Give the backbone structure.
Amino acid sequence: ERSSSTFNYGTYHSLTSIYEELDNLAHECSGIVSKLTIGESYEKRPLYVLKFSTGGTNRPAIWIDAGIHSREWITQASAIWIARKIASDYGSDPSITSLLDKMDIFLLAVANPDGYEFTHTENRMWRKTRSRNQGCLCIGVDPNRNWDAGFGGPGASSNPCSDTYHGPSANSEVEVKSIVDFIENHGNIVAFLTLHSYSQLLMYPYGYKCTKPADYAELDSVGKAAASSIHSLYGTTFEVGSICTTIYQASGGSIDWSYDYGIKYSFAFELRDTGTYGFLLPASQIIPTAEETWLGLKTIMEHVRDNPY
Amino acid sequence: LETFVGHQVLRIRASNKEQIQKLQFLETLEHLQLDFWLNPSSPALPVDVRIPFHSLQAVKVFLESNSIEYSILIEDLQVVLDEEKQAMALSQQR
């Protein structure tokens, strides 16, 4: 698949194929897209981030990641579609054009490449990383319980065989640490958006505790506006709320870390499904899911652009 | 390659806090090897769980004996996985 004209966004792809498409995007849209390597996974696969930028130094930036839970294939697939959308809309969509004229976007389409590869070759239902746990046969850590935010608290397991194992210490997973290091070194990330599936939720902090964040009113209102944008396209309904109130208490999650770190606009999306397919959403729904998700992301990003802090 | 022949995904609907607690207890039974896609948290939200074939009977008995409502979301996970694989292969050929 040497050029975007042959890349089918409406199907699921191997890691190699996705990585090739990242190259294509960076090559074809080199004016605004570049590919950065922010680290390596446990099994030494590169962690690639696409940077969308029109220039300037250390501009305020929006972070988007997808696929930290490897089996949630709709998220990696949506991220690739969204990457193409951002690149192609610059210069034609006034909203994205003004956004990119002011700030940068960083997109990590496959946050857990080892897990993703494993889902393609060994176990389609794999969720965690592939790191070895000393003294235990069970492999992997839930990378969304491994962040330094209430680490090891309620809603995470201390059992290495569990799907929600939090790991030996916060940031023990190199995939998590690489993102943390990148964001801390950048120093000007103003929004942190993470894509998960499934159950159609749009959540803000907190998950490790059930108290409201300081910016509750604003986050709730932005979240509801984004959910309304999502709904406008195909009628998909998203519930909006804090992690603790919409799902359950879960400690060590990424948006809790980012919010406590000072990134006010921290949101987690749980994309389609309605419950019929779980992590096996039919490929025919990839593009509709990506399209509606894009509208939700755009609403949040426009708010971020217009409300510097 | 791990196969999921006979694995079912159930959607469970707890009607009160007590039933949620029972489902949370079910979550702790590691020998059943349950994979919760949506964890038990509140009666307002469904609980989706993938159940290996060897645990199906035990789980269904547990639910029925506690009068907890459920329905089958995915009858045989491997069938859906095979469809996904076929769709990917077709797409690659195309």
Summary: The longest strand of chain A covers residues 189-197.
